[in-house]
Design goal:
single chain; alpha/beta; L-arginine/glycine Amidinotransferase, Chain A; three-stranded mixed beta sheet; 21% helix; globular
Length: 255
């Protein structure tokens, strides 16, 4: 079965993105577009059917579609992003997903960013961050429980989202930066530590046996290869200036 990857083109206004933990530095929109194209090509090479959402040039963070929804096997949760400026992003994502899943919504006062939600097995690990609050986590727990999922809150510090710090490379293996989250929560998993000189290298995307990973973190990439993973490096430096990583730019699910 071909997996679907929802993506959206880079806004020419990406330099006006929301930032929480990084200082604002100049972003070259043309380079960001080029890097995003390389990323989309990697998704296609990994076997995904790429589907483009409608352009949203007025939404600086619109390329980071992961934050707008959490897609599970029998339902999709439309989020309520923690940054108010990002809430209009969810409308087009919901419209695209309604043909595939029943939709559920996070409501005020809850906030939830998809980048804070990591699925491993039947457990959703959810980061407690400036973008995702206790009310949002509680609503998510109530929504997914009837479908057989558990939700476990995870403290995060020093970075934007949980998946900045830790990502799943299957139901039993995680790539992790222990400085930004509590590794004891993940007891029972095989943990692959990022190289300490590459703190943002914990963000990775497993697609059909390949790991898409930022080329800027070669030492961590070597660790992944040593653990038996096939790594597909992509250049992601401009998107990283907007606090984006390789999971952020797509929503991948089985139709």
């Amino acid at each position: 079965m071909t997996r679907i990857a929802l993506v959206r083109e880079v806004s020419p206004g990406i330099a006006g993105c929301e930032l929480t933990h990084l200082d604002r530095t100049p972003i070259d929109p043309a380079r960001a577009v080029s890097q995003h194209a390389e990323y989309v090509a990697a998704l296609a090479e990994a076997g995904c059917e790429v589907r483009w959402l409608a352009p949203a040039p007025e939404l600086p963070d619109g390329v980071f579609v992961e934050d707008a929804a959490v897609v599970l096997d029998r339902l999709a949760v439309i989020t309520r992003p923690g940054a108010e400026s990002r809430r209009p992003e969810v409308t087009s994502v919901a419209a695209a997903l309604k043909a595939f899943r029943p939709l559920h919504y996070i409501r005020e006062p809850g906030t939830l960013d998809g980048g804070d939600v990591m699925l491993a097995g039947r457990t959703l690990y959810v980061g407690e961050t400036e973008r995702t609050n206790v009310a949002g986590i509680a609503q998510l727990r109530d929504i997914v429980a009837p479908a057989g999922y558990q939700v476990r809150a995870v403290p995060v510090h020093g970075c934007l989202h949980l998946k900045t710090a830790v990502t799943a490379l299957g139901p039993e293996v995680l790539l992790i930066n222990r400085a930004w989250t509590d590794a004891t929560i993940f007891e029972g998993f095989q943990l692959i530590d990022i190289d300490p000189g590459e703190p943002f290298a914990g963000n990775s995307l497993l697609v059909d046996g390949s790991v898409i990973h930022a080329k800027e973190f070669p030492r961590t990439g070597s660790r992944l290869e040593a653990a038996g993973f096939r790594v597909r490096p992509v250049v992601a430096s401009e998107l990283a200036k907007a606090e984006g990583g390789v999971t952020c730019c797509s929503l991948i699910f089985d139709p």
